[in-house]
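Researcher: Sequence recovery benchmark, item below. Answer with residues only.
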């Protein structure tokens, strides 16, 4: 996957933002994102980053807890939605990851990193997880949630549906990527928060959370 691929993914999410789907994603992902976010124990003064922040809903959660909050996304239209809906001193930027080129993100500068349904789009998953590990301070945590993973067979057609390439990794491969980057996997679990209107896979397979800690 190349930078052109990232542009292609960003264009998809630009269209979704223009179609009003950013808020729908917040409603759909929120019940799963919240318990993962809570595991990060974000609080007063925490330094927080959401990679692929969409309309900024977890950034707003972090602000509400007194954190210093940053949201980045490759989609300019999503960042526009995030800025329009956020009150408080959040930092938003249109940025790729791990090639974010943001001066505010220095080695060891973050206490908590969150990502929902993003990392399988990135050109190099291992490089992206390694960059998270570099940015985290000792004791900092990374919560990565994916619905597109090998054990969830219902998701395997999504690249064709979206017309973009995606990395299909197993639970074990996600854990290995964290460990290779120097992150201790403190929890790997399925989050099955779902409503009767949700597809069956949300209850049967669930969203895969991998929670890592920088020693």
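Model:
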């Amino acid at each position: 996957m190349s930078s052109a691929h990232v542009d292609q993914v960003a264009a998809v999410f630009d269209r979704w933002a223009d179609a009003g789907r950013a808020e729908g994603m917040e409603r759909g992902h929120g019940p799963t994102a919240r318990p993962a976010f809570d595991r990060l124990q974000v609080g007063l003064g925490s330094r927080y980053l959401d990679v692929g922040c969409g309309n900024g809903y977890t950034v707003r959660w972090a602000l509400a807890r007194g954190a210093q909050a940053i949201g980045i996304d490759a989609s300019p239209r999503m960042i526009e939605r995030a800025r329009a809906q956020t009150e408080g001193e959040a930092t938003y930027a249109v940025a790729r990851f791990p090639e974010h080129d943001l001066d505010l993100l220095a080695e060891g500068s973050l206490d908590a990193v969150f990502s929902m349904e993003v990392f399988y789009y990135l050109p190099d998953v291992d490089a992206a997880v390694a960059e998270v590990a570099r940015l985290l301070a000792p004791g900092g945590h990374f919560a990565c949630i994916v619905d597109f993973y090998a054990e969830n067979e219902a998701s395997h057609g999504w690249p064709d549906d979206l017309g973009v390439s995606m990395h299909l990794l197993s639970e074990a491969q996600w854990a290995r990527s964290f460990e290779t980057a120097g992150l201790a996997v403190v929890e790997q679990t399925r989050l099955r928060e779902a409503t009767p209107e949700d597809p069956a896979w949300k209850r049967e397979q669930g969203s895969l959370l991998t929670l890592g800690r920088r020693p």
